[in-house]
Amino acid sequence: MAQLRDRLFEDMKTAMREKAAEHLSTIRMIRAEILTKDKEAGNETSEEEILKILQSMVKRREEAAEQFEKGDRPELAAKEREEVPVLQGYLPAQVDDEAIRLSARAAIDEMGVSSIKEMGKVMGVLSKQLAGQAAGARISRIVKEILSA
Q1: What CA–CA distance (Å, rounded) separates 142 from 147?
Q2: CA 43 to CA 88: how far, in whole Å?
Q3: Is the pLDDT of residue 48 over 90?
Q4: Structural domains for the chain
Q5: Which is nearest to 142 in space by CA: 106, 104, 112?
Q6: b (16+ CB within 10 A) / e for 80-89
Q7: What confidence tens digit (pLDDT) does each residue in 10-42 have?
Q8: I need a surface site. Which of 7, 59, 95, 115 has the fewest CB within 10 A?
């Protein structure tokens, strides 16, 4: 369970040795978010929760970069975008839309879901199944497409 935590710790030590300041600050930020979540929960955060934290951090960085671009602050947008690959390096490989579509169709058929009103059931299953491999918004968009067709 502590596999990702151990990797982050080792990568932090390596970044310190190599004096990779940007990489180090991003890893420290990840670890801080995990520790905050640990304290909120009162116990050690699971790997699945850590993946959700990482996905959330990626999403926040992308949104912040967009806002900085709109606000004519390209240097801040660039800094946010530099953190994204570091964060994504700790996430499992992202699946493509076709893989999500196949998983969604299988879940829909298995559960006998026929209307968009039951989308929540499908999302619950797929969110767990594709944890860390696809953003919830992508999964949701594809499930809506399938159920609306």
Answers
A1: 9
A2: 25
A3: no
A4: 3-88 (1.10.1510.10), 97-148 (1.10.10)
A5: 104
A6: bbebbebbbe
A7: 999 999 999 999 999 999 999 999 999 999 988
A8: 115
